[in-house]
Specification:
By secondary structure, the protein is of the alpha/beta class. The chain folds into 2 domains: 2-83; 107-364, Rossmann fold (3-Layer(aba) Sandwich), CATH 3.40.50.300. The chain is 46% helix and 18% strand. The protein contains 13 helices and 12 strands. It has helices spanning 2-37, 42-53, 55-83, 147-154, 176-181, 197-201, 209-219, 248-262, 278-291, 305-308, 328-332, 338-345, 349-364; strands at 107-115, 122-131, 136-141, 159-166, 169-170, 183-186, 195-196, 238-239, 266-270, 297-301, 313-318, 321-326. It has a 6-stranded mixed β-sheet, sandwiched between helices. A hairpin with a 2-residue loop joins β11 and β12. The protein is elongated. The model has no long low-confidence stretch (mean pLDDT 80).
């Protein structure tokens, strides 16, 4: 703040010195001309000199007006750029899906490539995979491997090439509002609206309190607080703007409760539990395994390997490509595999291998 104020005063002094110098030079020149030319009367000379003295203020005013005009012109240019910005496709009658859609969480991706701008590099390169309805798929990879970009590409939030089939229909032929309303995504830091918890869970008043409480219980909120606690969260609890009066873990649980209420066939968790403690993460993952089993496909972008090691399948991304995709037990058998390398680098190698082996044995049974 002090540096900006110092620069402002310095620039003002720079302008004042030069305008005063120009005014003084002009006044002196005019006075010399009027005195030595002898063609002007005393009254004309006095009037001319008095007007010349105020010339500096007129110069400064002209400079300020020109600067104001230039700034206003920049604002108009910026408004024009916003008006010409590329818009998403508008809904059409041909893009309305059938009333039964989506009936399942089947997801099929064929040679999907994506980029953030038309002239930018590809962040995904010929990604192809298939997920059956009800499967839990973990998406792992190092930083910059394209995990979050994949979730954005599935929702057509970035420029994509290739085909994505959701419950048998290509998503590029479906209206964006229909596609995104049928998919639930829980981001890393979910946003909440100011108001009561009831308004955040059910803003349109479609469900009664019993259903809302069941969703909160299924999401694991009640397992993290006691009934005797006066500060426990209820449907009448006030939520600040953005959920700033709640912890990140509580916001994640509320976002999961909203997902349970929506009953979408495709649920995407974009590193939703990376900023919370392990105990809360375990509660959320247990709720997902318990509630999301009725034909709901769950894609989990993982920050912790513990989050996805018991998934049905694991997808390993590297530089925007799929390098491994399959059951955790099968991928861990490859000693030179990337998932095996990530497990080896983890400090919980033994527990991760035990989780994968336990889930593999349970699946075979």
């Amino acid at each position: 703040m002090s540096r900006a104020f110092y620069n402002l005063n310095s620039e003002n002094r720079w302008v004042f010195i030069r305008t005063d110098s120009l005014a003084a030079l002009f006044s002196a020149s005019l006075g010399a001309y009027l005195v030595y030319s002898g063609s002007a009367t005393a009254s004309d000379t006095g009037f001319s000199l008095s007007m010349a003295v105020g010339f500096s203020s007129y110069i400064l005013y002209a400079v300020r007006m020109f600067n104001e005009f230039e700034v206003s012109g920049n604002s108009l240019e910026r408004i024009q750029q916003y008006m010409e910005i590329e818009q998403e496709e508008k809904p059409t009658e041909n893009g309305v899906p059938p009333a039964y859609w989506p009936a399942s969480g089947d997801l099929k991706v064929e040679k999907l490539s994506a980029r953030y701008s038309s002239d930018g590099p590809r962040v995904l390169e010929n990604v192809s995979f298939e997920v059956k309805s009800g499967e839990r798929v973990g998406i792992v990879g190092r930083t910059g491997s394209g995990k979050s970009s994949l979730t954005l590409a599935l929702l057509r939030c970035i420029l994509t090439e290739g085909r994505v089939y959701y419950d048998g229909l290509p998503t590029d032929q479906i209206n964006l509002d229909a596609l995104r309303s049928s998919v639930t995504i829980i981001p890393q830091v979910p946003e909440l609206l100011s108001g009561t918890l009831r308004q955040n869970l059910d803003p349109f008043g479609q469900y009664d309190d019993a259903v809302l409480n069941d969703a909160l219980r299924s999401a694991g909120l009640f397992s993290l607080q006691n009934d005797s606690d006066e500060s426990r969260i209820t449907l009448d609890s006030q939520i600040a703007s953005g959920g700033s009066n709640l912890s990140v873990g509580q916001r994640q649980i509320l976002a999961l409760a909203r997902a349970i209420l929506r009953q979408s066939k495709l649920l995407i968790l974009d590193e939703a539990t990376s900023a919370i403690d392990y105990a809360t993460d375990a509660v959320i993952q247990a709720s997902l395994r318990r509630e999301m089993v009725r034909g709901v496909t769950v894609l989990t972008v993982a920050h912790r390997l513990q989050t996805v090691m018991d998934a049905d399948k694991i997808m390993v991304l590297d530089a925007g490509r799929i390098v491994e995709f399959g059951k955790p037990t099968e991928l861990l058998e490859n000693k030179n595999g990337m998932l095996r390398a990530l497990v080896e680098e983890s400090g919980d190698k033994a527990s991760l291998l035990a989780m994968a082996a336990g889930h593999g044995a349970q699946s075979s049974v």
